Amino acid sequence: MKKPTKIQRIATLLNGLQKRKISVREQAELDEWFHSLKVDPLEFKNWVEESGGEEQFSEKLFKRFNQKLAREQKTKRYFYYGIAASLLLMFSVAFLFQNDHAADSVQQTSNLAKNTTAPGGNRAILTIGNGEQLSLNDQPLGYVGNQAGTQIYKSASGKLVYNTNTNHSKPVYNTLATPRAGQYEVALPDGTRVWLNAESSLRYPTSFAGKYRKVELTGEAYFEVAHNRTMPFKVTTANQEITVLGTHFNIKGYKDEAIVSTTLLEGSVKVSNQLSGKTQLLAPGRQSTVARSSGEIEIHQVAVDQVMAWKNGYFIFENEDIQVIMKLISRWYDVDVTYKNAAQVRLGGTFSKSSDLAALLKSFELISNLKFDVKGRRVTVTD
């Protein structure tokens, strides 16, 4: 069998990436190629032209690509942002070649108002048993406090850690809450790890006692539950209850959204709803959606990497409604969004959560007819 050319190989890898069917080794191969482009602009030009693009267009894209890499070199702590931005450009090439009016929009991209709105980061408020609130952004590393015999620490990585050797019949409850533009990780007393997304909160005891380990969630969180066959772990969100022995899953249940979704990565999960009285078991790679109004439970196969993108530092959209996209953007950058004739637009692609707001919105303009106007903390979207 004839060995594929490098361009054919790159095209195959990009196709696999877009379809979410790419191995870790293949991803590494693609990343290495992206970085090699810094010293080989001709290879990029050839790839674009052999994919159907024009020389002038390839030069314009390569210039944008180089600017992204220059920013990556300047700010090394955002190393993977350069990779993700490169991914976006590749997606843009494939998308724009198939869409003539989109190609025109690249050349007519609006000039966003100069904006340095930074992305979100590790930000949270811890409310302890007596009602006192601690800003974890300002809290130094190390010992935070003692709650009914449980020691609380802030680790070197910024994670909140609970250490306890005893159980208490009357537990003290703490609440960890993230603001807009915030996320946080906590290690609960039983060893369970929880990552909270922006605008979310988790209420939990400082030690687990009784038949169950119970916590309450608002918003979105990813759980890696420590296994304990004798004490199942329960998560309540609105009228939904999740019961597990030890497994990995994601729950999204924001108050302003009509459904609560639970996605299972490994193990098994029982989803119950108090309104409908219905119960469903989830298998890995599947997602349950529960309607807040009726309690009806539906099960779907989902792309797990897309669901977990928020935790892994990315936004991944696949033909997603712009209003759904911008709701996520507003939570992560702490901005408000208004629209002018842009309600029906849909976008797709992979984007880094480490980029500043202006850079991300310019990327959106690259692959659509949309224009974004940023004034302070307000973004206006126009089609």
Major β-sheet annotation: 19 strands, mixed
Q: Multimeric state of these chains?
A: single chain
Rg, alpha carbons:
23 Å
Distinct helical segment count: 10
Shape: globular
Roughly what fraction of the amino acids lie in strands? 25-35%
Q: What level of helicity do the residues show?
A: 25-40%
**Structural class, from secondary structure content?**
alpha+beta
Which regions contain 5 or more consecutive residues with pLDDT less than 50?
A: 51-58, 71-111
Task: List how many beta strands DSSP finds.
Answer: 24
* N-end to C-end Cα span: 48 Å
What is the arithmetic mean of pLDDT? Answer: 79
Quick structural overview:
This protein has 383 residues and is of the alpha+beta class.
How would you portray this structure in words?
This protein has 383 residues and is an alpha+beta fold. The protein has a 19-stranded mixed sheet that branches. Strands 21-24-23 form a three-stranded mixed sheet, with helices on one face. A two-stranded antiparallel ribbon has the order 20-22. Strand 16 and strand 17 form a beta hairpin. The protein is globular. The termini are far apart.
